[in-house]
Predict the structure.
Amino acid sequence: MRFDWPEILFVLFCAVTLIQVFYYLWFFLRLAIYKKPKRTSLQQHAVSVVICARDEAQNLADNLPEVLQQQYPSTFEVVAVNDNSYDDSKYVLEYLQRPFKNLRPIELKQEARLIHGKKFPLSVGIKEAKHELLLLTDADCKPASANWIQHMQEAFADGKEIVLGYGAYNKQPGLLNKLIRFETYLSALQYLSYTLAGTPYMGVGRNLAYKKELFFRNKGFSMHNQLPGGDDDLFINRVATKQNTAIVIDKEAFTFSNAKTQWSTWRSQKERHYTTSKYYKGGHKFLLGLFSFTHFLFYPLLIASIIFYCWWMALAVFGVRFLLQGIIYYSTMRKLGEGDLFWLYPFLDIWQWLYYLLFANTLFKRPKTTWK
């Protein structure tokens, strides 16, 4: 039996494209057409903002006042856990506590044994929080507006216990900044769209809220205390359901931080993050893996189909995905404040192919035991 390899390559290319189109129509389109639910009544719960910091004196000085000055009519506190810092973080917190009585610094002076990374200080902050609603962010993050708390807590309605927000990066000159922002956008496109499709699988600690009772009901981070990461994505992966999770993408509810400026530090950061993805639920790993795998195969099969089969048929199939992708990217990038990246998306999509190669080895690496 003789195989017609050019035809087989083209069929594979069509199959890969069909799977990609399915993801765009079934998942990502939901975020593109998403509209904020109308609230019949205004709710204002008491909120505890929890921030962990290790050697973050400058970030605390720059960003914490923006959190403390939120225009929130109800009660809120800011629990700042200073995790064994060697810099002036303690004195920055003491200085800010004078004008801001709702700031509650917590000093940790001893490392937790057998609990790696950020989980122990965050668990302490959650335990010490006075209120049921917890809003988490990082010391290097700044809310987009004075209404950040208001928007995030509004989503706790109809039995919701988890609210996923968007943690963006500030726009700065240079190629690396655009690549980091595109990767952050693409990650948000997935976890926000999956949530809208009833399959929440992660959140980001830069902008995340959940109920204190949910945390203790699920024994906190005990299932993955041995890992330095996962205080956001692994915890949400374990406890989030279709019924208990909501999203907030109001631009006033974003948080912003500065992206890495050196390739080496960015790569180290991403490697640390990706070492936790292997611990996701099996169904989530399959969905995420299938999208990445078909995306990775898409361009090699496109080139092979153009060269060995029929160039115009291959380009026609490519055009279907390209057009659908452009429509969805245009809408979602505008919603997430990344509209300036839209005109670069064909090149950024090709970059994503190289990105898979760059970080493929992280799936086999052992995670480091530190969070800073």
